[in-house]
Design goal:
The structure is a homodimer of 289-residue chains. With 289 residues, the first copy, chain A, is α/β, with parallel strands linked by helices. Chain A is built from eight helices and 16 strands. In chain A, strands 1, 2, 3, 4, 5, 11 and 16 form a seven-stranded mixed sheet that branches. The radius of gyration of chain A is 21 Å and the shape is globular.
């Protein structure tokens, strides 16, 4: 069996880097081979799995500096059949890639808005007058750099190597403790032999909407887990897209959904929620670089 | 006295539209005149107020479809001296602006990533093959359109009129109930004669971090307000930027911070929090178009 894995492209993005790590890990631990399929957006990576074009997708969930990747959360809520199999944590080291001979000659810097935001202070300190141009991924603008030596892009060191481009500075992210969490996503129904089948999975992710006329429902939902000593490691709100002030809540809980305690908590939770979606239980695998 | 008001530019952005409404409202209700100062980013609009370059800024906080404007929240947390004076709610109607004679000849569409995301389904239905190019604001790319008739931009109808550009379609946002909430921000210390000095302000916004070793602290914080029947209209988490999994919590509460009930709630809250910042109490003014 050869698996196919969707990720945000073109090649060289941090999503691809996480996916490459996962492919190697999968080969070593299970012998399963996998190939990578770049897609132009995170939503399209997830749709590829939902429509059966690929078996898996590796998508960013959250960055330690810029926060949630809302595209991933919103798409996961809409595409009902997807399940989280594993989380990967990738340390992020941004590199300034350019054919310019010095920082002085750079006039424009391209990158994904999250990467531009993560290097804001460095850019203001060293090249304050450049124009910052957002792109759909960190690697989208790399093709341009050879034609235009006044341009630079922020991407990974691996991207510079892949595209055979020179670098001017590395580690330019403002916070050294920069990392991004990715999820490995499959369809709920498929054979799950390619995820860690450890007896205890450490995290469960879910999302829910609340009835509009139930005051205090969010507090009650949180209390269920607090009373059972289930730690909430993340809570995030997203608009329902119906009207301003109506939210969905996304939670990561430190427990396996299959345990008796969590089953009881989830049953109680469902009495307060309008729609409750459980995205799966999984372990977290740190990526060593 | 003539006030100056910072906003995201170039002119024609939705932030400017909200600011223009506020200028007119201010003139009618108080007689105070104000002028507008466009800035290239939301962060720079807020820094302009913090550094005394302008008295006020009008910045987007939250869109009903795309959610929080994280740049506003992160900058407000860092710039300690700023206070919210008023909230404005602007209905959003996106318009496709282009010198092309038909949709068929459009090859690229420019706009702010939030606007592109809000028109995703329309774009996929009517011009599925176009390249979407993110820009720093909805109006940044409008200058290009006259030179390149294969390009289009998504901005407001008002922007099309300001730049004297033709429109190909209007109301192209996927959700008709699309609106954005803005905050009018001043320095805490300045004369506050230019906000609604109603005796009862309906909302208070605040943010806090929690000590790492205090489990259940978030639930306790929410309980304080629930027990006092103070409605929580929004909760949002943002990374502390220290390490993955550490958050700041931003809350909007439906009460005036000066009331005895809120004073007592805030005093109790401060016993659980590490850092607590109160951004101010204010009323909400809907913008009729």
């Amino acid at each position: 069996m050869t698996l196919s894995i969707a990720h945000l492209g073109p090649p060289g993005t941090y999503a691809e880097q996480a996916a490459v790590f996962y492919v190697n890990w999968l080969k070593q631990t299970t012998g399963i081979e996998a190939t990578l399929c770049p897609y132009p957006s995170i939503a399209q990576s997830l749709q590829a799995v939902a429509q059966g074009q690929t078996q898996l997708a590796v998508v960013p969930v959250e960055n330690s500096i810029e926060g949630s990747v809302t595209m991933t959360m919103d798409t996961l809520w809409v595409l009902d059949t997807l399940r989280i199999q594993l989380a990967l944590v990738l340390p992020i080291t941004h590199t300034l890639i350019s054919c310019a001979t010095s920082l002085d000659s750079i006039q424009t810097v391209y990158s994904h808005p999250q990467a531009l935001a993560q290097c804001q202070a460095w850019l203001e300190r060293f090249i304050p007058t450049v124009q910052l141009i957002p792109s759909n991924s960190t690697t989208e603008a790399l093709q341009l750099l050879k034609q235009d030596i006044t341009s630079a892009a922020i991407a990974s060191m691996r991207a510079a190597e892949l595209y055979n481009l020179p670098t001017l500075a590395t580690g330019i992210n403002d916070h050294p403790e920069n990392c991004t969490r990715f999820w490995v996503i499959s369809q709920g129904q498929t054979d799950n032999s390619y995820h860690i089948s450890s007896p205890s999975r450490t995290h469960t992710s879910l999302a829910f909407s609340l009835p509009a006329n139930l005051p205090g429902a969010l507090v009650k939902s949180l209390q269920i887990f607090a009373q059972l000593d289930i730690n909430l490691s993340r809570i995030e709100s997203r608009p329902t897209k119906r009207s301003l002030g109506e939210y969905l809540f996304f939670m990561d809980l430190e427990a396996d959904a299959d345990t008796a305690k969590m089953q009881s908590a989830l049953a109680e939770l469902s009495t307060y929620t309008e729609i409750l979606k459980i995205f799966g239980s999984y372990n977290i695998l740190p990526i060593a670089i």
